[in-house]
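Q: Got a minute? One more chain.
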Amino acid sequence: MAKIRKMGVRELFEEQGRVDDCLVYSSKKDPNLEIINELAPSKQILSLGCGGGREIKELVSRGHRVIAVDISQRMIDSSKKIEPRAEYHCMDAVKFARANKNKMKLDYILGLYAFLGYIDNLNRKELVENLMSMLKKDGTMIFELRRFTESPKYIFKALIAPLFALYFGDNWKLGDVYGRNAHDLRAGWHKGHHFTDSELKKLFKNYALRVRDNKVYVRHRRLTNL
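A: Always. Here it is, folded:
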């Protein structure tokens, strides 16, 4: 077996297998599709980590005006083929938000498919603040993410997971998740993040925050309700 190496986010999502996984929804109960179905019609939306096309197709078909951002050119190219009517940017989301701070007035900002977990911890706070400057006062920012339940079961799993990572492909360590490349186990590892409730409170402490399962809704008004 080839030596396991670290994979970056851009490299991970440039894989053809990853693109193929983002073409259609496998279930009408997909939590990301449920979020899209909840949105008010015909709004201005920023989709971060837009993927290979399924999300943008669903949004545009509902009359939304969509700005789509993804770090992977392969994902962007795939989404353009499926839904060409969106405005596309192949760019790191942190850099995009920094460049567009105070320059947009959006109804919704979406970060689906565990998008926020792939943003480095050092950049998350800046990203959130810059995105909020791009949101209308009555707008909503919505993230679908993975939560790390602070219970003995999950803490125990976090501590022992490194011993089993080579066999089961996931390594939980204090909220961080390292998973093998699903399409070629020899290729390497990628890193994501599971959020604790305390992390969410800290990250969004100046804003209205509502958490429902793995769905996080953020607005300008100060309120914490977890």
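A: Residues 70 and 90 are 5 Å apart (CA to CA).
Q: Perfect, thanks.
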